[in-house]
Amino acid sequence: MTIRDLRVLVAHHDPTVARRIAEEVGDAELRVAGPVGDLRHAIARAEGEMVGAVVLDLWLPDGGGPATFARFQERHPALPVVAMSPRREEQSAIEAVALGARCYLLDEELGRGLLAPVLGSISLSRGPGEAGESGAAAASMRHLLHDLGNLLAVASGGAELLVEKVGDDPLAEEVRELNTALTECVSLFRQVAASRRAGRSDG
What we know:
203 residues; alpha/beta; Rossmann fold; five-stranded parallel β-sheet
């Protein structure tokens, strides 16, 4: 499966949010499967199509927090999952990532440029394989890019939460500077990922 063959399954209970997710999937130059509005259909859709990644609402009608991810992963353990939630629940974020979610984002963070680099890094890490030592090196680089994309997106989201909480704290300015730097890093990563995709397409 090549990078451009990667389909991202969107599973969210809110059709409006699902459309916004689909737009960000397009920003990562990937194709959308779905959307679907419940866990049962998400599991079935992932079995019936060439799905390479999933954006999964943890609060689907027939789900319930991190258990939603656990149930999906039980049926599709190899599929990368980006967990989404409409709720600010730190424990749910910790549990979802601990269970294996590639990233945890809030619905309200859509539009901040966080989802596209994570999905882009997944597509890079699942690109066509090469043989021999050069292939191993390329695979290693793709995984490094994947980890970097996740780290930057999660760190940027965390910094934004800190900015909201620090208020007039003496560290507020340092936190804001950190948030700005991380936002710029996410933007740079998106540019690098897009450049790599364009280079593969031209080749």
